[in-house]
Amino acid sequence: MSFSKKWRRMKLGLKTVLGWSKQGYFIPYRYAASDLQAGHRPVYRSVAEICRAAEDRFQGHLDALSEYADDLNGFHGTKPPAPRFEQDWFPRLDGAMAYALVRRFKPGRIIEVGSGHSTRFMARALADEGLATEITAIDPAPRADIRALPGVAIINKPVQQVDLSIFDQLGAGDVLFIDSSHILMPGTDVDLLFNHVMPSLPDGVLVHIHDITLPDDYPVLWDWRNYNEQQGVVPMITGGGYDLEWSSHYVASRMKDAVGQSVASSLHKPDSAYETSIWLRKRR
Whole-angstrom Cα distance, residue 222 to residue 182? Predict the structure, then answer.
């Protein structure tokens, strides 16, 4: 970790521990030194088994990219607000699959928590497919300018300040797209989405969650971020309430030959990029 990141963490940590202002979380735990450290945590075997069983479905989604090959290859060297692959926030497999799945499944409504490059890919998919679907983007501070995108309604608030009844508008085939704080703590956006919104979703809603590297642990380089969101995703996958539609990380790490033989092989991916989209379909 760079000195600037260490210094920033120290300042935020002192403010939090001293009670000046809450800038994060400190959880006192006597046996924390005994916890398995990054790089030494085991693979989630039950998730790996479900991913292996879903390989045919993953392959089908990879093959379907060929339907949109010309469009996808046109997302190189583009300028905002067009989607582009020359960025590492929402790279190759993530962007291509968001574009393709929206075109294939034709959702009537998309609600996105956290926005940016993903919004650009999905808005373009809707336009190219000739759909009138509106995207509602809930984000207090979008990292990419999405104001010029047609059909996008922006709510500049954290989801904690939004009336959760907005999610009641989602029906079968619609999309709940999550790329938020990645912190599962009481009262966080992830807590509200995972434990209040998602249990009430009807059958058939597609749920996307970003920065998920299951069945593996988070990358060692991300350890300083202290993400714990995917620990809440494990029981979704293994508990039987969702079908696993797609996992960018699994495909990129375990199905490399399939990726190399697909349209994805012609799409740019920065060396620094991690492909981490996971798509689930709600079922009861």
Answer: 12
